[in-house]
Structures are given as C-alpha cells and as structure tokens.
Amino acid sequence: MDHEAHSCNKFVNMKSQRVKVEGSFAPALEDETETIAHLLAEPKSEYVTVDGVLCCGKENAGKGVDIEDFSCAYDFGLNTYSGGLHSAHPRGRYDELEFGVLDGLLDEVDEVEDIHAINGLASPCDDYLLDIGFTGKASELGFGPCEKSHLGNSSSESQSPRLSGSSNGAVGISESSTVTIQEFECKNNSIDKAVTHEFHGGFRRKKRRRTPVEDNVYPASINLQNLELDNDEKSLSKKSKESNERENCSAVTATQDHSKVRCQNEHHHVSPGILSSVPEEDSISENQTLAEFRTQRKLAKKHASILALESDEQPITSESEDDHVPKKRSRKHDRRKHQRMWTLSEVTTLVDGISEYGVGRWTDIKRVLFSTSAYRTPIDLRDKWRNLLRASCGKKMKKEVEQKEMRALPKSLVRRVRELATVHPYPRQRGKKFAPPILPTPSKSASCDLIRKYVRRKNRS
DNA sequence: TTTAGGG
DNA sequence: CCCTAAA
Known about the structure:
It is found in: Nucleus. The protein is an all-alpha fold.
C-alpha cells in the first residue's frame, strides 16, 4: 500500500518533468488527434468491465475518478500492466488536455515498465495482475484474453533481468500490441476491436520511438489497412512477423510464447478462466486433464515453430527497413536469446527433484516441480545439474568464474549436490528407472571419479 | 518424445 | 542457452 502510493508519487513527479521536456513535440501530434477521437468512441460497457476487474483487490485513491478518463479499455489494460499506475494516466482525455501534456503521459506509460523493472516492482505487480486474471470475469465479454496476454507479457518480461534491464523500452509495448493482434486473429471475430487495437499498438510504437524527425514517417494507416483488408491467418502471421522483426530477439520469443498460449485457448475452447490461470506456457492447470495438456502443448509448439519459420523467411518488410532499428536486428542471431539466472530456490528445487526422482528424469522434475516456471525446460534443468556437478566436484574447474556458481550457493546445498552426485551419477545408467533412495553410499571419491570421467571426455573433444 | 552430449 | 543425434 505505502509502497504503491510511493510509486505513484514518484511517477507523478517524473511526469511533470517529462511534460516539461516534451512539450515541444506537441505540434507533431496533430494528425493523430483524429485517430484518438475514433478510439474514444470505444463502447463504455467494455471498460466498465475492466474497471471491475482492475478494482478487485486494489484500492486506489482517485481510481474511480480516473477510470472515467479512460475511453479505451484496452489501453487501460496496458497502462495497468505498465506497473499498476493506471490512476496516473488520464489517457482518454485527449480533447481536454494539451498535446504536450499528453505526449508526456503517453511516453511515460512506456517508461513505467522500465522503471518498475529496475526497481524490482514488477514482480509484486505481476502477482497482482495474475490474480486479477484469475478471478476476473472480463473474459466473458471477450476482453479477458486480451488482458491476459498483457499479463503474460508482464510476467515473462519482468522476470528476465536481461529483458527488462537492457531493453530500451521499445520491446515491451510493441510486444504487447503484437500479441493483441494475434489474439484477435485467432479469435477471428470483432474486427472493429482488432482494428482499434492495432491502431493503439502502432500509435504507441510511434510514440515510443518518436523523435521529432520520425513523426512523419510512421505508417500507422497502412497497418490498419492491412488488417481490414485481409483478416485471415496469413495476415496475422505476417503482422506478427513484422512486429517481431522490428524488435530484438527477446521480443520475438516472448511474442511467440504468448501467441502460443492464446491460440491454444482459442482452438481448444479451454475456458478463459483456465487460460488466465496459466499465463505461462504449458503448466498444467488443475482443471485440465493430462491429455488436454499434451494436446495443447503439441499445438502450441507447432504454432510457435510456424511463427519462427516465417519470421526467418521473410524478415524484410517495408517497415523493417526503417533506418532506426538496424542495431536491433544485428542482435537477432544472438545465440542466447533468453538467459535467466538461476535463483537459489530454483537450484534447491532442482536438487530436491533430483533426489526424489533421480537423475535423468528431467521432464518429470520439470512437470512436477517447475510447472510454474515456463522458462525452465527439462533441458535447462539438466544443463543446470551438469553445471552443478562440474562445479561441485571442483577439480577440473580451471576458472574461478565457474566456481562462482557454487560460491553463490549455501554450503548445505553444495553438500547435497555432492551427495546426490554420488547417489545418482549424472549420465544415468540405462534401464535404471529410479535410483533407490537409499544406497550403500559409494565413496565420495568414486563419485568424483565419475564426474571427472565425464569432464575428461568433454575436454578431449 | 526424451535424454545425452557438444558447442 | 541452443542444437543435434541417439535411444
């Protein structure tokens, strides 16, 4: 509560500064005013729904008043996502506010993301948002999935140190807009909404990247046109491709993940409530059967691979040739797209899992113990364990850098790793389904020999 | 489809 | 973290 209020204050202060600075950009916004006017016509009923959703659990002085300022429910969702500071964004009042002020506010929405990520505020916010997604009824009006898509972005992005820390801010919003588009394409209904949404995405992107020079160049109307003219699967893919191309690889990945989730939902008619409770990839919801889960996962992978393929095949579009983003594209082939530090609790969980299921049962461990960590694949678990083994045995570690990994861990955990290494030698013996919980413990040196053997084999090649 | 191993 | 081969 205090925390939140503090954030708001901080934010408001910043806003004042920005308004001051960006006032000079006001004239450039002129032709957008019409666009905004259209958006303002968004049906009230929808944002009443949002209102209900967002209010649940979050009391906010002045929120009730501010919500009335929002003319577009979807924007509202985005703002909320940006850090729960929605009450500070009277986005809808374009006609009443001066352009300069609005400009500042709009840009600020983008900024909040980063601010929150940096301050570590994102996570609590995520939880809050996720809860909303879980309990909210907005999905009944066809709004829910959209909201959730943002939530999904929020969580995946904010948890990644690299994503939120190093991004210039362009990733988050563009990503959101992209996801939204896909949502509507999957749904294949409500063109009006889709169009409106696309417009928002484009608009905001523009804002974000805007420099006084760039303003004239942005072809928002083209996007709109595309969406209206062919609203089929291809256009969807194409659009997502375009969006992806504009962003760095992190954004691409995130987009795929979320499209995955959403399309699953659409094709299988899973209830929105379930979807909202599973914002991250393919964890099994309580209400899902295993069969359903597997089917969805299969489809999701297919879809993701299609997206990936397309974005590789035709990366060039009129927009991606924009001179302003060449740097981002160079990062595209970066090998490690999403790197996430292993937390202590994750390592502990992994060790627990291995001690329970034995080494090599990576999918089991993932399914049971890492079901909520979408970003940890069974392979990740195995890799981590491999690193732990190498580090714990120590002898073959040439570089201290690698031993840092162990230094960060408590001694007790290191001990457990070593013990586990003795009980469950890493390259699991074939046919050994489950290592007996209690074994005549081989000597520690024996286990280290095994590890050394493994390391040596590696070194030879 | 999962695991192992290499990069 | 990613990719590929093998099981």
